[in-house]
């Protein structure tokens, strides 16, 4: 190793050794703060911190949720909950920002739960209402299922126990736990702690209180030295120098008052036995005032004595069976008696408890035996013993010789007893001393002295006589200095000496034992509060006693240098240290320990840490501004390293420092040093940069709105930092402009991060389809980002009403970056390409629902880009539909086609014939609403009958018109006027197309009717039924395709009129055709009119032929043929025409025209009698026609019209006439009871 390396190694070792010594020194001060706190308490109202989630736990949670989504768990859930979990898994758990949250150390299981809860609240609110099931119940159920997924297979009791233990450690820590924590914080080893603990006498409350008094006295002396030598820190104003000393004094006075307010205790601050307090001023700064002089009545002591009588030896003068007992009493108190015992076994083990105020009480114990004589008034005393115990007397039982009466044979009577006298809390030491002074105790005499603590700052040396409660002499120790001294010549009594010196007084004490002298000097040293520590002439470290108890030697052997190091640490004067520097180190290490523990603290100290730091600052005079400035530096260091720090915590510390610098005196300190102001300005600038950076990266600094309320707190803190002083608010425009700049940068950062996440490289040379696909995916991601911003980062509007406007501007800037790539991708798309419409629908559906972005700059630009495309598309579609109508009807076979509903999802719009350009398929058409029921039935597997509608051309026309209108409707065009223009144009186009369709159908119908047969062989062609169906479909579609608004009149009312008139004409034409057939039948019956030549020939021929062969009944074939004609046409119309109303109307008109034609024919023959054959034929035709039309649903009012009644009456008369003349010529045919006849 070279010299340079050796030098570096030596330098490093020295640096580590210095750091270790400094940590040990800090630990000594911390030990004293923990052992005897008198300023701070552990806070119990701090927010409970949750356990952190680490990387391994995050991976485990991901696996559990993935297992649920794959159906590998036993948790039952509906589809809605599964969709919510899938969204949560994809958007949160798998996101990079969730990993960053975990890595930052500020993420807890509660954060995971809150993100899920916020996600499902939006989903559940959008669900429809369900009777009997409230949405709050659904939310509770979903949260319970989430908890089950998150926990997985873990025992549900274990997390509860861990959380309970964590909450306890977060609230209250014992002294031992605090010692252990700060050993870890400062790197102190266990044996070092033991050495320092024993050396500092932390278990001795009196020593700790005395240490505090010495520290405060040292701080007062330091303040006086500063004022005397004018060694002031550099202040921002020279007037603050005098105020600085006053602040030091007042802070010490406050600490003295706090110390004085503590009860004088035996077991530390938790022992609450209070003593009688003097009326003097608690502060020892006012020494010399008459009010400070103690009186003898101010010193009150109370002792508890326990007298235990065990047995008596040497009792020989009594018979073995004689009864003996003992009595015990304390001078001036009650008398107690033991149980009776036999003289052969005088044993009791009886305890008596007494209370006295005498430091030197007189205890009397007597032994008695019962007198059995009748005249005996008192029992016989066998012996007595009188003791004068003290608190230092032995506690174990000992034998004492008893004084016996004269002439008693029991001369060696001894009693075994123990007298235990407890020391009260305010009695610090006691014993017999020789004393002599200038003012009091002028005679050198042995006295019993007691060192009494009247209050935390008032001690007195009191001498007592036996059986006296008040002291004989009293010496108040304020202002005295105790020390060891050499033997005094001329004084008889005492071996070792010490004295107490005060201006104008000297008191010399002497005792017989060196160890006793050490204990007295130590006790008085604690009481006087002097800074000088007396050193005994010969100090034996291993046999030193404290409080009268031997101290065992330490189990750790130390060499002299190590012993000296420990002594130096313990005896170091706190007022000589720069506690600002020491506290900065302590606070930094404490924060480091806190940030690395298992809790998501966000920079907040635990209650135990707050307690120790508060106590340290108060006890050693660390200025509040310095404390918070250091805290701010440390917190910003962590925040700049991407650790999550609560901005509320930064705000609290910054506000404290700002108030102090600007003279608000939050901690009572009115002085401001130049160093504090410079550090504050530096921190203010650094904090401004940090906050602006956090707002710029708000999506990553506050992911998913966590920590809760952090963004709002950051904005409030930024406003506070911008303030020039504590009273003048920041102008709203200044704050707004600053945030606007931050959010503009945030837009660029977020968009670049989005491109990296999507792995999209904007390349103008890429294929048009690939660029459009990238823009579609990027558009979805942009919408997701903006939705997350609005959902998780809109809390700033609670602090600033204009935050929503700034977020809207940020969104516009974000979309503006997307707009550049969008425009370049749209420019390379081929002409007349409609593949971009889904992109428009995606963006427009999001923008139109956002109140801040709707019709904003990006939205308007999007409309400007797509207006020409929409117009061009509609133009081409109009031409295509028009040409398809023309070509289709020219080639139309008028054959009915099945509904296209089943195949709508895959049916493209036909290409426009004879056009050079190619029209692609329309994007994402859904089935028209009027075809919905057919879709449902078909999809559910119901075998529908053949449903015939119109022809191929008409069905294609109606579907195209509906699909085109649905397409434009799905665009949801945001600009009202253009949307209305599109609607009007499409309605007008639909009206024109339907008008052309109706007219072409009517002309084809007329042509069919002209070519149709006029005999009973005529059957309605299927093409005619198809034409009727076309008109019916047109009628139905008219209300949907040609009406602008349900609340308005029809845009093209002439379409309705045209369809109705066309219906009437077609029905009339068809009825006319039916009438022509009936006329042909009636004309054949006219041949049998009475008086005609043809009628007589036919009658003669039939009669002659009937003699030889069976002749068919004349007229029945004609009737049957007509009835068959009617029935078959009825069935055709009923089966092939889909509208029931029009069928009924057609049948009513047909029936009415038929009855009218028969009625007219009969009216023309009123003067003639009907031929038998005419009568039979008409009866059958009329009866069957009536019956058939009634079965077809024609109402009775129409069936029984006047024509039918006229026919019925005439045929009934003719039937009666024929029955009279011909008898059975009608062969059972009759107009009566026609309903009961078999048809």
Distance between the termini: 130 Å
CATH superfamily of one domain: Pleckstrin-homology domain (PH domain)/Phosphotyrosine-binding domain (PTB)
Number of helices: 36
CATH class of one domain: Mainly Beta
CATH architecture of one domain: Roll
Q: What topology, given as strand order, has the largest sheet?
A: 13-12-11-10-16-15-14
Q: Main beta sheet: strand number and arrangement?
A: 7 strands, antiparallel
CATH topology of one domain: PH-domain like
Protein architecture, described:
Residues 426-529 form the PH domain. The protein is of the alpha+beta class. Among the domains are: 55-151; 303-528, PH-domain like (Roll), CATH 2.30.29.30; 740-854, no CATH class. The chain is 54% helix and 9% strand. It has 36 helices and 18 strands. Strands 13-12-11-10-16-15-14 form a seven-stranded antiparallel beta sheet, with helices on one face. Strands 2, 3, 4, 6 and 7 form a five-stranded antiparallel beta sheet that branches. A hairpin with a 7-residue loop joins strand 10 and strand 11. Helix 27 packs antiparallel against helix 28, helix 28 packs parallel to helix 30 and helix 33 (1140-1163) runs antiparallel to helix 34 (1172-1191). The longest helix is centred in the last third of the chain and has 36 residues, at 976-1011. Residues 155-168, 266-291, 539-557, 899-948, 1046-1052 and 1234-1239 have low confidence and may be disordered.
């Amino acid at each position: 190793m070279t010299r340079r390396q050796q030098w570096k190694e030596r330098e490093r070792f020295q640096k580590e050794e210095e750091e270790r010594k400094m940590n040990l020194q800090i630990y000594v001060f911390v030990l004293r703060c923990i052992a005897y706190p008198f300023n701070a308490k552990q806070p119990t109202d701090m927010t409970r911190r949750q356990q952190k989630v680490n990387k391994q736990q995050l991976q485990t949670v991901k696996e559990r949720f993935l297992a649920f989504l794959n159906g590998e768990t036993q948790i039952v859930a509906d589809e809605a909950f599964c969709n919510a979990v899938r969204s949560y898994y994809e958007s949160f758990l798998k996101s990079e920002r969730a990993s960053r949250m975990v890595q930052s150390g500020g993420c807890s299981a509660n954060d995971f739960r809150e993100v899920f809860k916020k996600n499902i609240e939006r989903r559940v609110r959008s669900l429809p209402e369900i009777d009997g099931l409230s949405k709050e119940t659904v939310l509770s159920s979903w949260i319970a299922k989430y908890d089950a997924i998150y926990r997985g297979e873990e025992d549900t009791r274990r997390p509860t126990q861990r959380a309970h233990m964590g909450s306890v450690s977060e609230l209250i820590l014992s002294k031992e736990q605090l010692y252990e924590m700060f050993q870890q914080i400062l790197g102190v080893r266990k044996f070092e702690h033991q050495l320092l603990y024993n050396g500092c006498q932390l278990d001795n409350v009196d020593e700790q209180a005395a240490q505090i008094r010495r520290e405060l006295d040292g701080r007062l002396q330091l303040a006086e030295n500063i004022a005397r030598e004018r060694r002031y820190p550099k202040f921002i104003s020279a007037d603050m120098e005098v105020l600085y000393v006053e602040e030091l004094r007042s802070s010490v006075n406050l600490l003295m008052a706090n110390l004085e307010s503590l009860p004088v205790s035996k077991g530390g601050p938790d022992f609450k036995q209070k003593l009688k307090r003097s009326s003097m001023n608690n502060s020892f700064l006012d020494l010399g005032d008459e009010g400070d002089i103690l009186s003898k009545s101010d010193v009150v002591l109370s002792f508890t004595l326990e007298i235990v009588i065990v047995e008596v030896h040497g009792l020989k003068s009594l018979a073995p069976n004689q009864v003996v007992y003992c009595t015990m009493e304390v001078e001036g108190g009650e008398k107690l008696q033991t149980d009776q015992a036999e003289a052969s076994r005088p044993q009791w083990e009886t305890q008596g408890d007494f209370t006295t105020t005498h430091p030197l009480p007189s205890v009397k114990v007597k032994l008695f035996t019962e007198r059995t004589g009748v005249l005996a008034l008192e029992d016989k005393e066998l012996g007595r013993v009188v003791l004068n115990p003290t608190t230092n007397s032995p506690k174990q039982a000992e034998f004492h010789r008893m004084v016996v009466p004269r002439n008693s044979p029991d001369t060696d009577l001894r009693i075994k007893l123990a007298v235990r006298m407890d020391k009260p809390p305010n009695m610090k030491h006691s014993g017999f001393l020789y004393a002599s002074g200038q003012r009091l105790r002028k005679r050198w005499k042995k006295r019993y002295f007691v060192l009494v603590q009247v209050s935390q700052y008032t001690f007195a040396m009191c001498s007592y006589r036996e059986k006296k409660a008040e002291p004989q002499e009293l010496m108040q120790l304020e202002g005295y200095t105790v020390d060891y001294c050499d033997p005094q010549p001329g004084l008889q009594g005492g071996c070792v000496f010490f004295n107490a010196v005060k201006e104008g007084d000297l008191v010399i004490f002497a005792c017989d034992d060196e160890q006793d002298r050490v204990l007295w000097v130590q006790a008085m040293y604690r009481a006087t509060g002097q800074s000088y520590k007396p050193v005994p002439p010969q100090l034996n470290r291993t046999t030193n006693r404290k409080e009268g108890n031997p101290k065992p030697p330490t189990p750790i052997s130390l060499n002299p240098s190590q012993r000296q190091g420990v002594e130096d640490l313990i005896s170091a004067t706190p007022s000589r240290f720069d506690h600002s520097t020491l506290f900065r180190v302590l606070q930094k290490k404490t924060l480091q320990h806190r940030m690395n523990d298992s809790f998501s603290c966000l920079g907040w100290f635990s209650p135990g840490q707050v307690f120790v730091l508060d106590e340290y600052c108060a006890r050693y005079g660390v200025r509040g501004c310095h404390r918070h400035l250091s805290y701010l530096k440390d917190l910003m260091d962590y925040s700049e390293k991407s650790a999550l720090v609560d901005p509320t915590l930064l705000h609290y510390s910054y506000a404290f420092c700002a108030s102090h610098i600007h003279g608000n005196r939050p901690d009572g300190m009115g002085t401001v040093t130049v160093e504090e102001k410079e550090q504050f300005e530096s921190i203010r600038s650094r904090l401004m940069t940090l906050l602006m950076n956090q707002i710029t990266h708000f999506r990553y600094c506050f992911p998913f709105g966590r920590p809760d309320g952090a963004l709002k707190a950051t904005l409030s803190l930024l406003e506070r930092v911008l303030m020039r002083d504590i009273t003048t608010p920041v102008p709203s425009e200044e704050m707004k402009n600053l945030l606007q700049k931050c959010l503009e940068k945030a837009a660029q950062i977020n968009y670049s991060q989005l491109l990296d996440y999507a792995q999209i490289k904007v390349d103008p040379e890429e294929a048009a389809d690939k660029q459009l696909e990238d823009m579609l995916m990027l558009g979805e991601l942009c919408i997701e980002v903006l939705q997350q911003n609005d959902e998780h980062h809109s809390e700033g509007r609670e602090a600033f009403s204009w935050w929503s406007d700034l977020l809207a501007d940020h969104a516009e800037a974000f979309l503006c970056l997307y707009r550049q790539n969008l425009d370049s991708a749209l420019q390379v798309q081929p002409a007349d390409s409609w593949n971009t419409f889904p992109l428009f629908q995606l963006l427009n559906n999001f923008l139109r629902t956002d109140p801040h972005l709707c019709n904003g700059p990006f939205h308007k630009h999007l409309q400007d880009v797509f207006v020409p495309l929409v117009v061009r598309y509609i133009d081409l579609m109009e031409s295509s539909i028009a040409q398809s109508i023309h070509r289709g009807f020219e080639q139309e076979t008028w054959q009915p086609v099945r509904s296209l509903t089943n195949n709508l999802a895959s049916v493209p719009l036909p290409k426009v014939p004879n056009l050079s350009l190619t029209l692609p398929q329309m994007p994402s058409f859904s089935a028209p609403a009027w075809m919905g029921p057919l879709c449902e039935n078909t999809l559910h597997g119901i075998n529908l009958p053949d449903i015939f509608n119109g022809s191929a051309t008409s069905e294609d026309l109606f579907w195209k018109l509906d699909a085109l209108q649905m397409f434009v409707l799905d665009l949801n065009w945001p600009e009202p006027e253009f949307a209305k223009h599109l609607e009007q144009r499409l309605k007008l186009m639909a009206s024109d197309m339907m008008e052309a369709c109706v007219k072409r159908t009517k002309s084809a119908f007329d042509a069919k009717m002209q070519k149709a047969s006029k005999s009973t062989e005529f059957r309605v062609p299927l093409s005619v039924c198809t034409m009727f169906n076309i008109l019916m479909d047109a009628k139905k579609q008219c209300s949907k395709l040609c009406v602008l608004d349900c609340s308005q009149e029809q845009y093209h009312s002439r379409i309705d009129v045209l369809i109705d008139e066309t219906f009437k004409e077609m029905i009339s034409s068809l009825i006319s055709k039916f009438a022509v057939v009936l006329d042909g039948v009636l004309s054949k019956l006219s041949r049998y009119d009475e008086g005609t030549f043809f009628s007589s020939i036919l009658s003669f021929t039939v009669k002659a032929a009937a003699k030889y062969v069976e002749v068919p009944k004349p007229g029945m074939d004609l009737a049957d043929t007509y009835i068959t004609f009617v029935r078959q046409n009825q069935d055709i119309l009923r089966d092939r025409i889909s509208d029931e109303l029009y069928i009924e109307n057609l049948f009513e008109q047909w029936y009415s025209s038929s009855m009218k034609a028969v009625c007219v024919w009969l009216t023309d023959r009123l003067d003639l009698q009907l031929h038998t054959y005419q009568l039979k034929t008409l009866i059958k035709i009329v009866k069957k026609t009536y019956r058939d039309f009634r079965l077809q649903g024609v109402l009775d009012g129409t069936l029984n019209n006047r024509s039918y009644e006229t026919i019925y009456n005439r045929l009934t008369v003719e039937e009666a006439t024929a029955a009279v003349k011909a008898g059975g010529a009608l062969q059972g045919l009759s107009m009566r009871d026609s309903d009961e006849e078999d048809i």
